[in-house]
Amino acid sequence: MADAEAAGGRTAQLRHTGMRHGWTTGACATAATTAAYTALLTGEFPDPVTITLPKGQTPAFALAAEEKSAGRAMAAIVKDAGDDPDVTHGALIRATVRILPSGSGVVFRAGPGVGTVTRPGLPLDVGEPAINPVPRQMMRDHVAEVAARHGGTGDVEIEVSVDHGEEIARSTWNPRLGILGGISILGTTGIVVPYSCSAWIDSIRRGVDVARAAGRRHVAGCTGSTSEKVAVAVHGLPEDALLDMGDFAGAVLKYIRRHPVDRLTIAGGFAKLSKLAAGHLDLHSARSQVDKAFLASLARRGGGDDGLAAAVTDANTGLEALRLCEAAGVPLGDLVAATARDEALAVLRGAPVAVDVICIDRAGVIVGRADPRGR
Question: What distance in Å separates the CA atoms of residue 29 and residue 53, rounded to the nearest whole number?
Answer without folding.
Answer: 12
